From TrEMBL, chains A, B:
One of its GO terms (cellular component) is mitochondrial matrix. GO terms for biological process: cell redox homeostasis; cellular response to oxidative stress; hydrogen peroxide catabolic process. SUPFAM superfamilies: Thioredoxin-like. This is Glutaredoxin-dependent peroxiredoxin. Thiol-specific peroxidase that catalyzes the reduction of hydrogen peroxide and organic hydroperoxides to water and alcohols, respectively. Plays a role in cell protection against oxidative stress by detoxifying peroxides. Reduces preferentially hydrogen peroxide rather than alkyl peroxides. May be involved in mitochondrial redox homeostasis. It comes from Buddleja alternifolia. It is found in: Mitochondrion matrix.
Length: 197, 197
């Protein structure tokens, strides 16, 4: 599935600054894409404890509820509790949260192909829950719709997402950065995105 | 996939004590099954940090390495960071570890359809890593082979495992307990299994 998605992809890599910043336009997601109309049936799952999950009746959040009428910074990563994600990717947003807020950003969101309870446990461990909203994409449907899935079975992870970031205004993608390899951390960090808003 | 596995299943439910202890014999796993020969190609992934994963070159552990010539207590559950698992299932083994060791058990193992980094984060949070060996079954292949998978998408988890426990000697299943529903905790706890060894 991941490999056929890969074949379908139209990958345009464009170096922006000194070869450091690369952005890709995928077949189904690019600058200009309206996430709300592109994926009206897709929902994410707000990170929460299991008990909160039960009391919420396992409610999910449609993309409209996340993006409509809002300025959103969102970044995706291969998995909770993996290396670059914990050590660099999340901190690069957490540590810049005041600067994002100063630019009028309504929410800074972290998403991964994990369930919302794992995302919650990880967010608590990183002490990042106050600054960043964490969402699970437990069945990968959000990342599949965006054509941002990748098979990371070799790293014992299975089907996950690329490492990416985006600036989204009222559902429309204004900036999109996708790392060439999920082990890299060149274009998807908070510092880079701050300079693009 | 989960539903076809369900159809294939031969489910025999047998009440043992006051309707409280129930054991099921599945099509592909039952008391007497030799796990090593039933699933020679299946491996689990020892829980570890991402950095340990990298330095181990993402090594996995074949079932033979886990069960051969050993007396093993193993229990499986729907997921790291879920309710019954964190609050009751793991503690029921952790708190009885001395009693299991006194019975000559070589290892007490917890397994779930999660990646090994999530399992490691959860084990650390539960302060259970010293007593219990945690393994991931990231692609579900172990539980598929045992026909113990269940679709828990309604709880935002996706394809996971039943809640179960077993006593395994040199690869052969001597005792097997599977909860009728993964939300239940009647037959798969450490106290029950202690009485069955």
């Amino acid at each position: 599935m991941a490999s056929s998605a890969l074949l379908k992809r139209t990958v345009l890599i464009k170096s922006i600054v000194n070869g450091f910043q690369a952005s890709r336009a995928y077949a189904s997601v690019a600058v200009g894409t309206d996430l709300i109309s592109a994926a009206p049936d897709v929902a994410l799952q707000k990170a929460r404890s299991w008990d909160e999950g039960v009391s919420s009746k396992f409610a999910t959040t449609p993309l409209k509820g996340i993006f409509k009428d809002k300025k959103v910074v969102i970044f995706g990563l291969p998995g909770a509790y993996t290396g670059v994600c914990s050590a660099q990717h999340v901190p690069s947003y957490k540590n810049n949260i005041d600067k994002f807020k100063a630019k009028g950003i309504d929410s800074v969101i972290c998403v991964a192909v994990n369930d919302p309870y794992v995302m919650n446990g990880w967010a608590e461990k990183l002490q990042a829950k106050e600054a960043i909203e964490f969402y699970g994409d437990f069945d990968g449907s959000f990342h599949k719709k965006l054509d941002l899935t990748i098979d990371l079975s070799a790293a014992l992870l299975g089907p996950r997402s690329h490492r990416w970031s985006a600036y989204v205004v009222d559902g429309k993608i204004k900036v999109l950065n996708v790392e060439e390899k999920p082990s890299e951390f060149e274009v998807s960090g908070g510092d880079v995105l701050l300079g693009q808003i």
